[in-house]
Amino acid sequence: MQTLPIGTIQTMTVARKIDTGYVLQKEMLEALLHHNETDKELEQDQAVDVFLYQDKKDNTIATTKLPTIVMDTYGWAEVVEVIPNLGAFVDIGTTKQILVSLDDLPLFEKVWPKEGDQLYVTLGKDRKGRLLAIPATDGVIGRIYEVAPVELLNEQISGKVYHTNKEGSAILTEENYRGFIHHTERKEEPRLGEVVQGRVIEVKEDGTLNVSLRPLKQHGIVDDASDILEHIKESGGMIPFSDKSDPDDIRGTFNISKAAFKRALGKLLKEEKIEQRDGKTYLKE
């Protein structure tokens, strides 16, 4: 059965006016344009550009408020509502807010986007034919990113996270530069859609960037030392770690490298805030 293509912008003709709005027609197929979906007075046989979607009763609805994102066209959409176990609704620039399904969001809800974050999406359909917003994949970003200049090395940049997992986070900057933040270069995993600011630590041959969210060593020592000291206090004045501890155990607990851990311990030892005995670190009274 032929149907009007929802998620697209179509030029339709006013077939007739009804109490609730207008009935539009194209190739004998009809859509309803409610009065609250247009700010125009329309005449019979007038042509009008509309965006098509389906309501909860599966009726095809038209609106003259045209979106910036349609089928097969990507763009940034602001998150307007997040519902646990369902997903996130985004504003695509029209009256209809579109769901990003939990199936297309990170596994852990703690890194789901929050209201105000932005996702790079296009429109698609689920198996029942309902409109969904589909986040861009690495393959999509790989076709649109701009080659970054080598002069960006060691410069500060900001970008929106379009993909994140345990391995790392991928960002896209306003200039369409593509960056990757390895999990060792971030203190915690940022949210999908979050704007992050970091330092370019490598400009790769393909024009993509490796980015660090960590401060420079001389600044990072202070932050790491503070975090470790707080951890010791919260652990009753002792932690089963020293500068001889296994690197994986250190990263698993403090999310920093062994080298950074040793630098921070050295600072605390020099300040006589801690002491080490039998492979453990104690708060110094």
TrEMBL record:
Domain S1 motif: 154-214
Lineage: Bacteria, Bacillati, Bacillota, Bacilli, Bacillales
Family per similarity comment: Belongs to the CvfB family.
Annotated Pfam families: CvfB_1st (PF21191), CvfB_2nd (PF21543), S1_2 (PF13509), WHD_CvfB (PF17783)
Coiled coil: none
Source species: Ornithinibacillus salinisoli
Signal peptide start-end: none
UniProt protein name: S1 RNA-binding domain-containing protein
Gene3D superfamilies attached to this UniProt entry: Nucleic acid-binding proteins, Winged helix-like DNA-binding domain superfamily/Winged helix DNA-binding domain
PROSITE patterns tied to this protein: S1
